[in-house]
Task: structure prediction
Amino acid sequence: MHQHTESINSPSVPAPRFSQSENVARTMSSREIAELTGKRHFHVTTDIERMLTELKEDATGFRAIYLDSMNRQQTEYLLDREHTDCLLTGYSAAMRMTVIRRWHELESQVAQTQPLSTIEILQIAMESEKARLMLTAQVEQQATKIHSLENLFKEGMTHTQFCKGLNGVNVMQVGNYLEERSWLYNESKSGTRHRVGSYARDKYMTEHQVEVTPHGKDPFISYTPVLLKKGAARLYDLYLAGELPMKKTWDGLFTHDKAVRGAA
Result:
């Protein structure tokens, strides 16, 4: 059987203070439902009594007394969330939505006043510390990565020269790998003469041009693909992600790992 006190909506009776262990609003009065839906209070109470009769529940367990503006005792009904939802089944969508939104407000207000338990406080503290440690590790890792990259990359470097500084990389296969990624293309039909592809041009790589004059032959322009700083950073990221072609004799350590160990 439901036990109820005076209405939380009475203008002359102080609203009851719920225990801190409750995290949702307990009841909604028939008067508030009437106000929210625009129905007369008499009609709402009639609807409630009809509903409780169909549910075969004792209506007295839901009744409460409040004092009206003239200090006279009046009767209302206090419904929990479940019975309120049941009552609204026969109401229009607009009425149902208005009451539902009010329930959400009540639940939110009470939830915000709910004090955290010791376990919840410890969990929050642990998550906060975990996040701090992860952020610290990421910052340190990023700093080491930037330091390693600054030591490895020099303006005008080719991809081959840069990758020679990366522990374990199979330098002879990097050109083919960059062809697969559309950074380079081979303009020679008989050998290997790499040019920078449109995908990577001026983004990751550029070209140095040199005029070559062979003895007894016409001069021609030789193109040498070189890395830009952004290209070197991208190659280094691919290296740390294990994407670059590696030697079979690789010891499993990245240049990054060796830099970290050296700093320790």
Observations:
- Residues 74 and 233 are 77 Å apart (CA to CA).
- The chain is about 45% helix and 15% strand.
- The chain has two domains: 28-113, 122-263.
